[in-house]
Design brief:
Blueprint lengths: L10 E14 L3 E12 L9 E2 L2 E3 L6 H13 L5 E8 L11 E10 L1 H4 L8 E5 L10 H15 L7 H4 L5 H12 L5 H11 L2 E7 L9 E5 L13 H7 L3
Parallel strand pairs: 1-6
Antiparallel strand pairs: 1-2, 1-4, 2-3, 2-7, 5-6, 8-9
Length: 241
């Protein structure tokens, strides 16, 4: 019989949602947000796709564990890795033992994403069109995608997909891919320039058939600090913005 003084126990695990902008190899089209998933080879949920992750080892830091499990399953080692949320509802584990997952999320550029180890048990999926995943991983991806779209409005997160120098057209393409809708080029330029978040450089993109576009960078003097993740309940009560 459980009493109110009895201590709760749970296994700790880490999982990582890693986003990249990719085109569909079959249909082409505009870049979309994709993520790699790993097929489970044992119960529970054997055969279903899941986020890269695994148990936390004794003496292992959380961020290190997230990076280790991600590298072991996909071969990726992203430079941007941020703790997203802790998922620990009592009903999330199918076994007798409760599992609390500390979830990280990461962003990689297209060329880095191409180096991922894919095969029968590792594959890329469009973030907005996922199969039914193991555990509560659909919920986790939904929350991570919402966080990504929210952060696009006030942080420098886009440069994780672009690099230090980029054209305004490239920046707009990233916003369009993440938000999932087309943006008016003129309005986007005015909004970005008025924000003061980016600074024009003296460099230009080479190798273009027309007039080379100017390259920009983010202004490090502007405070675009991350306000931190909202509680999961607040996200669902407010809905997506």
């Amino acid at each position: 019989m459980t009493t109110k003084h009895e201590r709760a126990s749970a296994l700790l695990a880490v999982s990582t949602v890693i986003f990249a902008l990719r085109k569909d190899d079959e249909t082409g089209g505009e870049p979309q947000v994709w993520l790699p998933l790993v097929r489970r080879i044992r119960e529970p949920f054997q055969g279903r796709w899941a986020l890269p992750g695994g148990p936390l080892r004794v003496g292992e830091d959380l961020a290190y564990a997230a990076g280790r499990t991600l590298n072991e399953t996909t071969g990726l080692a992203p430079s941007y890795l941020e703790q997203l949320y802790a998922f620990g509802d009592a009903s999330r584990s199918s076994g007798a033992e409760r599992v609390v997952s500390i979830v990280y999320w990461a962003l990689v550029r297209g060329e880095e994403a191409e180096r991922a180890v894919v095969g029968e048990n590792v594959a890329w999926f469009p973030a907005d069109h996922l199969p039914e995943l193991a555990f509560d991983h659909n919920l986790i991806v939904e929350y991570a995608l919402w966080r990504l779209r929210t952060k696009m409005e006030y942080s420098r997160i886009a440069h994780a997909f672009l690099g230090e120098r980029f054209t305004l057209a490239q920046l707009r393409e990233v916003h369009e891919a993440v938000l999932g809708r087309a943006l008016d080029p003129a309005n986007f330029r005015r909004t970005i320039e008025a924000s003061g978040a980016v600074v024009a450089t003296d460099e230009y993109l080479t190798g273009t058939p027309h007039r080379p576009p100017r390259l920009y960078r983010y202004d490090d003097a502007v405070d675009l600090a991350d306000a931190g993740p909202l509680p999961l309940q607040q996200h669902f009560f407010k809905g997506e913005s």
